[in-house]
Amino acid sequence: MKFTARFSVPRIDVSAYRSALDRHMKEMIGQALLTWLEAVLAEIPVWSGASRATFQKLARAVGYSLPVSPVAVNAAHGLFTSRIDRTGMGQSASAGEMVTDKETGEYTFTYSTTLPWLIWNEYHNANVDPDPSLFYRVIKEGPYNFQAIGARAFLRFADDVDLLPVKPFVRGESVKF
Q: In the chain, where are the structural domains located?
């Protein structure tokens, strides 16, 4: 007696899946970065433009328009008007990048700053515990806690992100025995 059978062996189109996954992850990390930026920037006031300018490199990575021009502040409220544009100082005192690497599977963004008063205001209420290098009152009392606020916003977003399903990239291939 002779039997002939046909089996269907699953084959994954790995190349197509990786390409689709790359597009998906680029979109997700971009949206995560926007979510993080919006949460963080809500905590950072504009005075001379320096603090907000530290975020411009990241904003540019996702095409986000980030206004940082210095603003006039009402002196009647005990605050002074900033006549100095320090956006260049903020830009030079920061680093920010988004990495999307299909080959390594790395999809990240990073931010850092060495801007002294932004660091000080992150952890202190500068109107009560003033930065020793500055002499004026701040627009928004700290501590800003923007790092923790940004992390929570990112994690809330990331909780809803899933990898793409593999099923659309699986094909049955007949094998005759």
A: 18-160
